[in-house]
Amino acid sequence: MVGLMDVRLANPRGFCAGVDRAIEIVERALELHGAPVYVLHEIVHNRHVVEDLSARGVKFVDDLGEVPPGSVTIFSAHGVSDMVVRTAEERGLRVIDATCPLVTKVHVQAQSYAGKGHEVVLIGHPGHPEVEGTRGRIPGPVYVLSTVEEVQNLVVRDPSRLAYVTQTTLSIDDTRSVIDALVARFPEIQGPELKDICYATQNRQNAVKRLADDGIDLLLVIGSKNSSNSNRLAELGGRRGVPSFLIDDAREIEPAWLTGKRRVGVTAGASAPESLVQSVLARLEELGAEDIREMQGVPENVEFKLPDDLARR
Fold first, then answer.
1. Which domains does the chain have, with CATH numbers?
2. Under 8 Å CB-to-CB from 251, ≥6 apart: which residues?
3. Cα–Cα distance between 296 and 10 in angstroms, integer?
């Protein structure tokens, strides 16, 4: 025990509709087709989810060349490029697309802009699977950037024929400043403001802001290190002046972090299961948590349909 403390639990937190759908797609594919089922990249960015599915017969691959021809193959929630789709077709793979519908919406918007002759700015982090998938869906030039400084250095062919879209899991505040910089530099640029940042990302970031306003002394964000939205939550806590730590599970909690802390905030990224939250709360109780209280939050009732061939009848 490191001392008595209160815990404030963010609401909403954890799984979003896109993650729920992606995991259910994998589980239904296992049920209908049997193991092995192949998934290109991690279905969602959470180590525990990936390990659990691997133990049940899912094989995660980084290249479609690792998948035997004709095998059931699932594209992750982050989406893939046109080239990946063509490669899967050439290999005769039985593809099930688990791309989050909100990511697909970004693909459609970007393609619409490009089809009208606009160069496209993609606000996001280069190398992230969602960004690479979106970039690979857009015909013509694509400029990937994530900072105001990069906006200032951007050189485009025709400033009057420019549009932008955004990665869905970014920091709302950072994205707003980048959009403002783009509009200031390229007044004729077209784009969807902040509408492409998904509802779950916005809600979870707003919940962290409420935790900070409630006077927490420490923030624990449950999520894997490669989870973009989880990293943004930890960064947001830090910007609000709250020491913030991104942890995969309860085992990573360092008791020294809690010394002298009277109120601890807990949240979870959109790909972190609620079971991990409960294990973290149990560990905090062992370390001296007395009052664990869930904060009021925005209700989430979004649901995304499964692909028709997987839907339960």
1. 5-15+199-294 (3.40.1010.20), 17-100 (3.40.50.11270), 102-185 (3.40.1010.20)
2. none
3. 8
Q: Which own/partner pairs from 66-69 qualify as long-range (CB within 8 Å, at least 24 positions apart)? A: 66/38, 67/38, 67/40, 67/91, 67/93, 69/93
pLDDT of 2 over the 70 cut: no
- Taking only the tens place, the pLDDT of each residue in 20-69 is 999 999 999 999 999 999 999 999 999 999 999 999 999 999 999 999 99
The predicted-structure confidence for 236-295, as pLDDT tens digits, reads as follows 999 999 999 999 999 999 999 999 999 999 999 999 999 999 999 999 999 999 999 999
- β-pairing, 244-247 vs 162-166, is unpaired
Yes or no: say if 249 and 274 are a contact pair by the CB < 8 Å rule.
no
Per DSSP bridges, beta strands 37-40 and 72-75 are parallel
Which is catalytic among the residues 42, 119, 130, 235?
130
Q: Is there a catalytic annotation at residue 130?
A: yes
8 A C-beta contact, residue 98 and residue 43: yes
In whole angstroms, how far apart are CA 148 and each of 174, 178, 195? Answer: 9, 5, 19
Order of strands across the sheet that contains 5-9: 244-247, 218-222, 263-268, 5-9, 289-294
Amino acid letter at 182? L
